[in-house]
């Protein structure tokens, strides 16, 4: 992974506007970017867009042998990959610290919290179980990858349906979608990871790439504290994950405020995920074709051609700060008062003086003595 450098001007500017109660894109401290969920043709495939951050998720299943310590439980595997398509700083076929960090957070949030009924994935005890694999691909990295990836993981798992299985004697028959209806995944609860950027005592939800980079770096010689706080919570306001990266927190009110904001935000996200899945099921029952090509428009194709930095501050208008004296000066053609003489430099030891009054005459004055 290549290093991303940010100038001191960007750091100082971002620090000043955040301290002043504003953000670059015009959002409030607790306001998140626009969330969009689109489903593919297969069950368990979706694209989640959080602002300009986009993640593709796909769930697949296969029959494998269970683990010896868990003979009656299925297996859940989560894998996230970041390719150069997500950003120019990433390299192909090379695992970075960011990839390992995101995979660990997703496993803690979804495997350790036991949100999936793994016993329902068992076919034959100690012989055959279902193994669910969640593959995540980052399409564009514009900050807050963990929240976008967690929403994609939750949506794809809740949307996925595995084939039905029938056991006759020692034989196990896996039916196709045409023979029997698929079986949805059983979820006990719906956890979501939310990210907060810490600027000293300020807490900012859903930070973009620039805000994440600035809060993790040393912004000035004064040693401002900054870091990334990840909170995993379900719709019942139960804490599933808490992770801090960066400087240590010396104020407990920061964590308390983050939990209050995360509780309300998680409930909204879970309700949105459930409603989109219900709408997708209704559309599939009506034989409506689903494909990612429907969401690919000219705006999506040209999204990478946008400017690197877009500023949209609230309550800011160029016309409001225009000086009223400037408007009067524009109406009247006011010329500056001319000086009595305009001295124009010319040849060495020579000056050309132009008189402004009367007829224009040229007088040449030489410092040298004239020869007779």
Summarize the structure.
By secondary structure, this protein is an alpha+beta fold. Helix content is 26%, strand content 28%. Keywords: Cytoplasm, RNA-binding.
Please tell me about this protein's structure.
The chain is an alpha+beta fold and 372 residues long. 26% of the residues lie in helices and 28% in strands. It has seven helices and 17 strands. Strands 1, 2, 3, 4, 5 and 6 form a six-stranded mixed sheet that branches. α2 crosses α3 (145-159). The longest helix is centred in the C-terminal third of the chain and has 34 residues, at 252-285.
Helix and strand arrangement:
Blueprint: H1 8-19, E1 35-39, E2 45-50, E3 53-64, E4 75-82, H2 97-112, E5 122-124, E6 128-140, H3 145-159, E7 161-162, E8 165-168, E9 171-174, E10 183-184, E11 192-199, E12 202-205, H4 209-216, E13 226-233, E14 239-246, H5 252-285, H6 298-301, H7 324-331, E15 341-345, E16 350-355, E17 362-366
Parallel strand pairs: 4-6
Antiparallel strand pairs: 1-2, 2-3, 3-6, 5-6, 7-10, 8-9, 11-12, 11-13, 13-14, 15-16, 16-17
Helix pairs in contact: 2-3, 3-5
Top keywords for this entry?
six-stranded mixed beta sheet, RNA-binding, Exosome_comp_Rrp42_subfam, four-stranded antiparallel beta sheet, 372 residues, 7 helices
The shape is elongated
Cα-atom radius of gyration: 32 Å
Spans with pLDDT under 50 lasting ≥5 residues?
Answer: 346-361
Report the order of strands and helices: HEEEEHEEHEEEEEEHEEHHHEEE
Percent helix, as a range, is 25-40%
Number of strands: 17
Query: What distance separates the N and C termini?
Result: 82 Å
Strand percentage:
25-35%
- Arithmetic mean of pLDDT: 80
Q: Please identify the structural class as seen in this structure.
A: alpha+beta
Quickly count the helices.
Answer: 7
Query: Biggest β-sheet: count, sense, barrel?
Result: 6 strands, mixed
């Amino acid at each position: 992974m290549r290093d991303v450098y940010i100038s001191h001007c960007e750091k100082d500017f971002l620090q000043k506007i955040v301290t002043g109660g504003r953000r670059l894109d015009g959002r409030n401290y607790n306001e998140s970017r626009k969330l969009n969920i689109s489903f593919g043709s297969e069950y368990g495939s979706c694209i989640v867009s959080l602002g300009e951050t986009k993640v593709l998720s796909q769930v697949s299943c296969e029959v494998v042998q269970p683990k010896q310590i868990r003979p009656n439980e299925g297996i859940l595997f989560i894998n996230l990959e970041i390719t150069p398509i997500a950003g120019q700083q990433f390299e192909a076929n090379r695992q970075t610290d960011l990839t390992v960090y995101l995979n660990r957070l997703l496993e803690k949030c979804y495997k350790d919290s036991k949100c999936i009924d793994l016993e329902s994935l068992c076919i034959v005890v100690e012989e055959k179980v279902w193994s669910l694999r969640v593959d995540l691909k980052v399409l564009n990295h514009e900050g807050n990858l963990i929240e976008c990836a967690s929403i994609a993981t939750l949506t794809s798992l809740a949307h996925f349906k595995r084939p039905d299985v029938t056991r006759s004697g020692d034989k196990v028959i896996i039916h196709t979608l045409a023979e029997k209806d698929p079986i949805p995944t059983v979820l006990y609860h719906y956890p979501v990871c939310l990210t907060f950027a810490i600027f000293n005592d300020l807490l900012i939800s859903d930070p973009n790439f620039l805000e994440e980079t600035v809060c993790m770096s040393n912004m000035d010689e004064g040693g401002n504290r900054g870091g990334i706080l990840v909170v995993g919570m379900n719709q019942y306001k139960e804490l599933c994950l808490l992770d801090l990266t960066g400087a240590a927190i010396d104020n407990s009110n920061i964590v308390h405020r983050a939990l209050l904001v995360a509780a309300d935000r998680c409930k909204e996200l879970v309700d949105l995920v459930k409603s989109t899945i219900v709408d997708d099921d209704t559309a599939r029952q009506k034989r409506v074709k689903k494909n990612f090509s429907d969401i690919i428009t000219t705006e999506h194709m040209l999204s990478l051609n946008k400017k690197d930095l877009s500023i949209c501050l609230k309550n800011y208008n160029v016309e409001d700060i225009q000086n009223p004296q400037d408007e009067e000066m524009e109406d009247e053609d006011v010329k500056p008062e001319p000086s009595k003489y305009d001295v124009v430099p010319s040849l060495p030891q020579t000056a050309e003086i132009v008189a402004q009054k009367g007829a224009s005459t040229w007088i040449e004055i030489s410092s040298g003595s004239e020869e007779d």
